[in-house]
Amino acid sequence: MLGLKLATDPRWVNIVESNIEEILTDHAWCEQKAASNAISLVTYNSELEELVTEMLVIAREELEHLQMVHDLIKKKGLTLGRERKDHYVNELFKFMKKDGSRKDALCDRLLFSAMIEARSCERFKVLSENIKDEELAKFYRDLMISEAGHYTTFLGFARKYADNVDVDKRWKEWIEYEGSIITNYGKSETVHG
């Protein structure tokens, strides 16, 4: 369904299990950034009522996920660490087109968002199927389903608001680009790392 070029090696979960506090901290900040991204889409596209309505739903869900991760951190006697840079997301950001019309830029921002959600969904699936901690396995299974919904929402809006963009062609470019950079990741205990 996601069409990603490269699947995450399940052995990545061994790295994650070596430092649960780090993956949970990184995950918490990923949720915060996802909520901020949805709010930014509202801020810059306030005239698009349907988009605003759905982005507010996503922002709320992402904040709920942040709360859930924070609750897990506390329950496990761990500490929410400082915000981490997400090098994967920063590399994706560089691929985003910054020229063209406002609608063209919106379309690419939505595809950028869909790509992050797609990879997060895939990573959560790998975690849910391979992590030994049963509570975390269920947690990541539930979140995988939510991320898949966000992925399809962003992709759907990209198709809806595209003016001069062949969305399917551009999405294939995003998939190719992501496939070329993801080979550098999967070696650390972070959601995208």
Task: Characterise the protein shown here.
It is a single chain. With 193 residues, this protein is mainly α. It is built from 7 helices and no strands. The model has no long low-confidence stretch (mean pLDDT 95).
Question: What is the number of beta strands?
Answer: 0
Helix content: over 70%
Order of helices and strands: HHHHHHH
- Give the helix/strand class: mainly alpha
Any idea what the shape is? Answer: globular
Mean pLDDT: 95
Protein name: tRNA 2-methylthio-N6-isopentenyl adenosine(37) hydroxylase MiaE
Pfam family, one: MiaE
InterPro entries: Ferritin-like, Ferritin-like_SF, tRNA-Hydrxlase_MiaE
Task: Write a compact overview of the structure shown.
It holds the Pfam family MiaE. The protein has 193 residues and is mainly α. The protein has 7 helices and no strands.
Please give a handful of descriptors for the protein shown.
193 residues, mainly alpha, Ferritin-like_SF, tRNA-Hydrxlase_MiaE, tRNA 2-methylthio-N6-isopentenyl adenosine(37) hydroxylase MiaE, Ferritin-like
Write the layout of secondary structure elements.
Blueprint: H1 12-17, H2 20-44, H3 49-75, H4 87-95, H5 102-130, H6 134-161, H7 167-181
Helix pairs in contact: 2-3, 3-6, 4-7, 5-6, 5-7
